[in-house]
Design goal:
This protein is mostly beta strands. It contains 1 helix and 8 strands. The protein has an 8-stranded antiparallel barrel with strand order 1-2-3-4-5-6-7-8. Strand 1 and strand 2 form a beta hairpin. It starts with a helix and ends in a 22-residue tail after the last strand.
Amino acid sequence: MTILTRVIAAVVLALGAAVGAAGPAQAEQKVLEGVYTYTQADGLSGDLTIYPSCVPTVGDLREPLYLPVACRLWVQAFTGVQGGQARLANGVWAYTTPVKEGFKCADGSFAPITETYEFNTDTMSGTRITTNVPACDGTVPANMVKTPFTLAFKQPLPIPVDQYPLICEPGGLRRCF
């Protein structure tokens, strides 16, 4: 029985080491905060106000957390551009917004569209993707339009957000502020 126990223990230890060593690689993420000038390739321009919201989800909070973890960007847009909650995936921030009255049909009714905004904080550029299903009694076919845009920092937020470091109460489970 002791040989079987040792074999099982060795297998469990090897699997635990393999899982611990093969953790997911995470690229550093740049978290935008402030007012940014949004400029589309077709000339549409305006200000986006971006508020970050980050929450620590890893570690035991013995040390102050200096890196952004579990962040979302709350994008407040201007007329002609939709706002939303951006999430980071594969180094690109993205959010999708349905627009109920996306465009007007010939008969005066409206058809919905979906807008997706994807942007890279390293290049400060992105793509606005507008899609629609067949609409207006079949007179408008399904379509997808990709329009590139750039972002440029304009000014800090009117109300600053204190992100990092998160200072945590000492000992065991604790609150961070």
